[in-house]
Amino acid sequence: MFLFLMTSCSPRITGIERFRNYENKLRHQNEVKLTVENFNGIVKIEAREGIEDATVSAVLKATGKSESAAEEFLDKIDVRFTRVGDEFSAKTIVPKTWTMASNRGKKPMSFSVEYKIIIPEGLDIETAISNGSVEIAGKNADVVGQSVNGDVTIRDNTGSVNAVTVNGSTYVSNSQDYEIKLRQTTQNGSHTLDLPNAQYGIYKLRTTSGDIDIKMPSSVEPDIEVNVANGSIKLEMGKRLAGKIDLITTNGTVSSDMVVNTTTSIGGSKTPTELIGRIGAGPGKVKVETKNGDIVMNYGSLE
Fold first, then answer.
1. pTM of the entire predicted model
2. DSSP letter string, 47-110
């Protein structure tokens, strides 16, 4: 998203801000999932060990040209934390005209809702955020983190991860030693994947415009697939990595300090724009492609 600034003789209207706090708590019964929908604001979700309640804290903000206007707008923002079947649901409700691009209807100069949600461990999580980032931490189950115009950060998850954003970046890190299934997708943003102890798993990362940084210094037989239109890729892999290597760029260079067998008998090749071959005899796979960018794959270090 691009912002164009123009000079003007008109005075800038800063507006009056008003805030309101929201808190609610629900006892964990048979719920297996948390869903979150929000406009304009950060969402932070943390799973904690040994707790029996799910707690939502939120800060609501509205800006108007006067104090009374700001209060009036604030009254129209609703946060609902409820049970829906076997799910917890946290949702921001605002008048429909507030989220439309047109100037029809009375709107605040700006509004936002920032969430902090604490839940028991082991729940599935799904978020749908517009104009805000999402941060998810702890031993959750399967996680779908989605945002438009915001970053997605997921740490220490124990299930599959699907991090999706438009006009934002994704950061996934995990200190646990297990196999993980992960997908990171973005338009106009970068990906960072930092898994110091992961040895196996399936990892798919795609972006239209942005760089990708993968750190897997313990990797043995991962299944990695990376596709980038405009951006460079850097990989730090394990010294026991065993599998097929397929690194290709159209407009850029490929380099590696790893010993890759590129003999013609296995159909391998090494040129400034590609490195195709094998390391060891394992079933792992590292397939990386970019149209406009460099690819660097080296041995990573365990600190």
1. 0.90
2. EETT--EEEEEEEEEEEESSHHHHHHHHHT-EEEEEEETTEEEEEEE--GGGGSSS--S---SE
Beta bridge pairs of residue 162 = 144, 183
Instruction: Give the whole-angstrom CA distance, residue 286 versus residue 280.
Output: 13
Q: How far apart, in Å, are the Cα atoms of 91 and each of 56, 157, 196?
A: 11, 23, 35
CB 182 within 8 A of CB 192: no
Tokens of 296: 């660097």
Domain boundaries, the chain: 169-303
Give residue 268's pLDDT. Answer: 72
Distances (CA, A) of 16 to 75, 262, 299: 15, 66, 54
What are 133-163's pLDDT values in tens digits?
999 999 999 999 999 999 999 999 988 999 9
pLDDT of residue 6: 32
